Amino acid sequence: MSEANGLPGRRSFLRGVAGGVAGGVVAGGAGGYALRGSRPDPALAADTAAMAGRLPAVPFHGKHQAGILPQQRQTAVVSLDATADSKAELTDLFQTITSRARFLTAGGTPPPVGIDGPPSDSGVLGPTVVPDGLTVTLGVGSSLFDDRYGLARQLPAHLTPMRAFPNDNLDPAQCDGDLILQLSAGSTDTVVHALRDIAKHTRGGMQVNWRIDGFKSPARPAGTVPRNLLGFMDGVANPPMSEANELVWVQPGTSGEPGWTAGGSYVVVRLIRMFVEFWDRVDVTEQEQMFGRNRATGCPLDADSLYAAPDYGADPTGAVIPLNAHMRLANPRTPQTASSRILRRAWNYDRGIDQVGDLDMGLVFSCYQQDIKRQFEAVQTRLIGEPLVDYISPFGGGYFLALPGVRDTADWYGRALLA
Amino acid sequence: LHPLLVTRYAGLPAVYTWLDRLQALLEAQHRADGTWVAVSQLPQAARQGIDAACGQALQELAPIASIAEPRNT
Predict the structure, then answer these.
(1) Which of A116, A117, A204 has the CB atom closest to B56's CB atom?
(2) CA distance A335 to A354
(3) What sign results for the dihedral spanned by CA atoms A403, A235, A57, A187?
(4) Is the CB of A207 less than 8 angstroms away from the CB of B21?
(5) What is the CA A236 to chain-centroid distance, rounded?
């Protein structure tokens, strides 16, 4: 079915992930993305078929972490603080996370313990752990580079605590952290199983600081792009992976960057509440003017195809797409702003009700980039005061560096940083 | 239980390591006048340290319940 509508089927989706950037994920990206439209890469496409069922294993080893490109249906984003007592214990922590991630992403039968202790596995996934497309993505925050572990000189060049923007309403209890761990898979039970397994093996070494769970909706209608909880398609415009070395991955030999960061990627996480009761009282034309897209079809307001690039040059006064529309401010599609593009990775969240009985739902926004100041902060600065800010409220998140990938069975998370 | 466990539980040294660490972290919150710092007053790093040591100690202690279960065979 998904082949028929032009999107890759499950198998090719996963081949794309396995191949990574070097393997040539590129299909539709003809370059010049900032100025022209393009269909998303297979690895980035929202493939309903791939997201709907139990997925095969995503290979754990590679130059980059495997969880950055695909977007599975379910995710947990967990900020942790290191409680390890020394650099040696921190090393042990990273090695333990590596070995658990290696097992959980591949799946298999947990070793029997017999009568000498509690079972080695929670049993949440049954007697055999299924991979279900699980990815484990680990990042480090700037606070890890304080005086506890002697890592101050290894601080990544662009890593700071998260900056507060004028429209933010940040709760310090839901910001930052020494580590960020994102677990994503096809089903919630797989995510929960992985979280319990990793937590059980690392109790002395790290403690949860804050956590939020997210979900990616199926593309509706099929063949389009999943929607956020404001009803709009989210992430239609993402750079093609042919530009990943210019936009996403920290390059070896980058001036000012410690060498261990090469192959990693800066990740910004922003927890954004949506005031959905308020939003649902706004007429659809005003909603569309705020985003710059048609709500039903996802098309830019000046085009009749989802992946068409808006022609801002033909609309200099904002008569069709207002000058302060979200997508126009976020990506003006000019040569000057091309280097500020980000790889957008957003999930919806829904966590019940707030203290006054309003629905507590919104967006777990995350984005990957080479340089937070040049990319996320430039984009977010352009968005200050956009009309949408009346309906959303960023309350948490953080800046992290997603570690370089674990290359092989001898490698482990952070080896180049800690060894 | 120590004599029973020392030959039966390879993880016993880790039990003592983590219980000792937990005790030291708790004593650090014991004031000279004999009162304790309330949990709500603990700085975040201190609370996380205690939670971590307690969690790891409980993890190391867990197999003892199975090992010490009376058996007829």
Answers:
(1) A204
(2) 43
(3) positive
(4) no
(5) 15
Of B55, B63, B66, the CB nearest to A203: B55
Which residue, among B59, B64, B73, would best test binding to A if mutated, counting the most A CBs under 10 Å from its CB?
A: B59
- CB–CB of A48/A218 below 8 Å? yes
Parallel/antiparallel/unpaired status of strands A74-82 and A206-215: antiparallel
Instruction: Report how far residue A19's alpha carbon sits from residue A244's, in angstroms, rounded to the nearest whole number.
Output: 14
Which residues, 6+ apart, have CB-to-CB distance to A259 below 8 Å? A252, A253, A416
CB proximity under 8 Å: A 170-229 to B:
200, 203-207, 209
Instruction: Give strand pairing partners of A267.
Output: A368, A400
Encoding tokens for residue A412?
């482990």
Q: Do B66 and A117 touch (CB under 8 A)?
A: yes
Tell which of B8, B40, B48, B71 to mutate to test the A interface (max A CBs under 10 Å).
B48
How distant is the Cα of B34 from the closest Cα of chain A, in angstroms? 27
The residue type found at A209 is N
Inter-chain contact A116–B66, Cβ cutoff 8 Å? yes
Distance of CA A142 to the CA centre of its chain: 19
Amino acid in position A419: A
pLDDT digits 0-9 by tens, A250-297 = 999 999 999 999 999 999 999 999 999 999 999 999 999 999 999 999
Are the beta carbons of A200 and B59 separated by less than 8 Å?
yes
DSSP secondary structure code for residue A175 in this structure: B
Q: Say yes or no for a CB contact (<8 Å) between A117 and B55.
A: no
pLDDT band at A39 (very low <50, low <70, confident <90, very high): low
The chain A residue lying nearest B71, using CA atoms, is: A115
* Burial tier of A243 (Cβ tally within 10 Å: 0-12, 13-18, 19+): buried
pTM: 0.89
pLDDT tens digits for range A187-213: 999 999 999 999 999 999 999 999 999
